[in-house]
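Forgive a beginner's question, but would it be possible to get any protein sequence you like and the tokens describing how it folds?
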Amino acid sequence: MSVFKVALPGKDAHRGSITDMVIDNRYPSPKIDTAANPVHAGLIFLSWNDTTAIASGTTKVVYSFPHHYSKCPSAFASYSFDNGTQRIKGTLPLQIGALGILTIDTDDTNVNLKYFSFDIGSTPIPAFTAQIRFYVMAESGLDP
């Protein structure tokens, strides 16, 4: 088997262990520790029932939780979306018709699931449910 690997700064790609690598095809990539504290992976169950229109340019934080790292980690998410007539799956961002977009990001303290509106604020947002599977990528040294 061919091995592809990229070492962490200060580590040797030829002699280092799998945990010394940023990428190693012998290890599931990306490196996500599902038993880490704070949590590196999980599910957010979103039930969007507020059908009020949201003005263009407005960002609404839908769900947020602290990541407890000293620097901003990276985050990405996949989704399963159902509005009663359409069922789709994919990777965020998720565009909700011509109304807005659902994204995930991090800041200095939190992982944030956000809705950004690009509607003129006159169209009601149809109710929907979504299951968001999120992943937070952080290496040793980022933790407090």
Notes: The beta strands are 5-7, 21-24, 41-48, 59-66, 74-82, 87-91, 94-96, 100-106, 110-117, 128-137. The two ends are 38 Å apart (CA to CA). Residues 32-137 form one domain.
